[in-house]
Amino acid sequence: MSQPASSRHRVVVVGGGFGGLSAVRALRRADVNVTLIDRVNHHLFQPLLYQMATGILSEGDIAPPLREILRRQRNVDVMLGEVTGVDVGAREVTVDTYGQRSVVGYDSLILAAGSRQSYFGHDEFAVDAPGMKSIDDALEARGRIFGAFEMAEVTSDPAAREAWLTFVVVGAGPTGVEMAGQIAELSRRSLHHNFRGIDPAQARVVLLDGLPRALGPFPKSLARRAVKDLTSKGVEIHLGVMVTGVDAEGIDTNADEPALHRIPARTKIWAAGVAAAPLGRIVAAATGAGADRAGRVQVQPDCTVAGHPEIFVVGDLMSLGKLPGVAEVAMQSARHAAATIRGRLGGDNTERPFRYRDLGTMATISRFRAIATAGPLRLSGFPGWLMWMFVHLMFLTGFKNRAAVLFNWLIAFIGHGRPQRAITSQQVFARLSLTADPTRAPAQPTPSATSHQQAS
Ligand SMILES: Cc1cc2nc3c(=O)[nH]c(=O)nc-3n(C[C@H](O)[C@H](O)[C@H](O)COP(=O)(O)OP(=O)(O)OC[C@H]3O[C@@H](n4cnc5c(N)ncnc54)[C@H](O)[C@@H]3O)c2cc1C
Q1: Residue 143 C-alpha to ligand 1 middle, in angstroms?
Q2: pTM for the complete prediction?
Q3: How does residue 194 score in pLDDT terms, banded at 50, 70 and 90?
Q4: Does ligand 1 come within 6 angstroms of the Cβ of 369?
Q5: What pLDDT is attached to residue 389?
Q6: Above 60 in pLDDT, residue 75?
Q7: Continuous segment of H or E residues that includes residue 335
Q8: Which atom of ligand 1 is nearest to the CA of 362?
Q9: Which is nearest to 115 in space by CA: 389, 426, 431, 329?
Q10: Is 182 in the pocket of ligand 1 (CB under 6 A)?
Q11: Pairing of β 100-105 and β 308-313
Q12: What is the distance between the alpha carbons of residues 4 and 75, in angstroms, rounded to a whole number?
């Protein structure tokens, strides 16, 4: 028999990403009250952020509102706010909603706050090299990328123009590879005939990584194929090169080659590393659980925190074995946590370890080219791309989003267009309001930053 709503078991889920949303859905038939708390109002499909940044998709296509997704699930309440503290004794979390503080009690707590960009101790790089973790990041990158072509068009000094037409992506993992491939494709294909003073196809796209090989998570043969495809698209790849400095005009590296030591480049995108969301350290301190170097909370094999069977940590925030920070781990670990809670409510207190089923991984290089693994399958080129397209459409939340994404893909991949090319000053300059130093000069188009003479 179900409990009256007021005396039901309370499950608080922090984070409405891949993990949090999977946990909430897995509890839809459970006799519980769920509160889903997220600091943003949407569920973000991060794997397609780079397509937002390069004008293929809009934010609405890949970030449906959490309230809309869950409108039919009667046992869940969505709350907008950032969880800033956990009182494990009182079993309460503190939530900050745009400055307004509230306290929410729980019987079970699922923490799925994900990760953030890591600049390896150089957070100051973020000012001139936005990451690729949020809608803000992708919109800023879009503003910088398309804005750079505009600036090149009105800049007559050849060196300054070259710097506007140089795009550096840091990090040759899947995100960096996808980003570099798309910038190359839009410059060589989509912007064709759009400018009079410059040839966008002259854009230099540079991909850097400190490690000696690109696409670490992929088998070597597939990674080699991806590098070959990317190079044929015009991307310059330099591996084993560490970034030592980033400023508005360019990027410094430790490369011996003088031409790489300093790369004049107005647009830099950081896709190099991730660290756990700050909530990881807060929870580790509150519970006494360890945190790894990236700030992820160490958990027991069943995804609970030692000494706190009522607290689960899942997805990118969790440190368990060598599990990778991918969407499948987040979804499967979240479902495991939800199943444990359901089992306990039914009187089954067995501690079952979480077992991850690796379903494969994939990355696009450009239109019609991708690499993908699924079990023993190794795909590249067009077959890999078809698989990539199918899997991404399946994993997108909501029919409306799938239809919109498919439509935009047709425009971008079959046609030449980029349907989402509108840029605003807010996208480019808003980061200033997020930086500690308000006197910091903008890194992008300013009247003083470059000459505004019409190019000949
Ligand atoms: C650009 C990019 C491309 C990627 N591509 C792939 C891919 O192709 N395949 C793949 O498998 N994985 C990919 N990933 C990784 C994948 O997106 C993550 O592993 C996955 O999102 C982790 O899910 P999660 O639920 O742990 O965290 P997230 O999905 O990041 O969700 C965390 C949520 O918690 C919220 N939150 C954080 N802190 C708080 C707080 N204190 N209070 C309230 N809410 C909070 C955030 O707003 C967010 O909504 C990619 C990631 C990025 C950034």
Answers
A1: 23
A2: 0.92
A3: very high
A4: no
A5: 92
A6: yes
A7: helix 327-345
A8: 8
A9: 329
A10: no
A11: unpaired
A12: 12
Q: Is 297 in the pocket of ligand 1 (CB under 6 A)?
A: no
Q: Which atom of ligand 1 is nearest to the CA of 334?
A: 25
User: Token digits for 206?
Assistant: 């540079």
Q: Are 46 and 174 in contact (CB under 8 A)?
A: no
**Rounded distance between C-alpha atoms, residue 238 and residue 260, angstroms:** 9
pLDDT tens, residue by residue, 418-434: 889 888 877 766 565 55
Q: Is 101 exposed, middle or buried (0-12, 13-18, 19+ CB in 10 A)?
A: exposed
Contacts of 365 (CB under 8 A, 6+ apart): 177, 178, 181, 226, 229, 230, 233, 371
Return the closest-CA partner of residue 64 out of 434, 310, 400, 453.
400
| Cα(395) to centroid(ligand 1), Å | 14
Hey, what CATH class is 9-117+275-345 in?
alpha beta
Q: Each residue of 109-137: pLDDT tens digit?
A: 999 999 999 999 999 999 899 999 999 99
Structure tokens belonging to residue 248: 């508005």
Tokens of 8: 């039901």
Active-site residue set: 178
CA of 114 to the centre of ligand 1 (A): 5
Written as six digits, the tokens of 93 are: 């979390």
Place of tokens 């397609």: 48
* 8 Å CB contact between 145 and 265: no
- Ligand 1 centre and the CA of 185: distance in Å? 26
Give the per-residue pLDDT at 133: 95
CA atoms within 13 A on the CB side of 108: 27
Please identify, by atom number, the ligand 1 atom nearest to the C-alpha of residue 274. Answer: 53
- With residues binned 3-state (H G I as helix, E B as strand, rest as coil), the percentages for the chain, rounded to 5, are 35, 25, 40
Residues whose CB is less than 8 angstroms from the CB of residue 67 and which lie 6 or more positions away in sequence, other chains included: 41, 78
Please state the length of the chain. 456
Pocket test for ligand 1, best of 46, 52, 118, 354 (most atoms within 8 A of CB): 46
Tokens of 438: 């308000």
Question: Which runs of consecutive H residues, i.e. helices, occur in 101-208?
Answer: 135-153, 158-164, 174-185
Would the CB of 319 count as within 6 Å of ligand 1? no
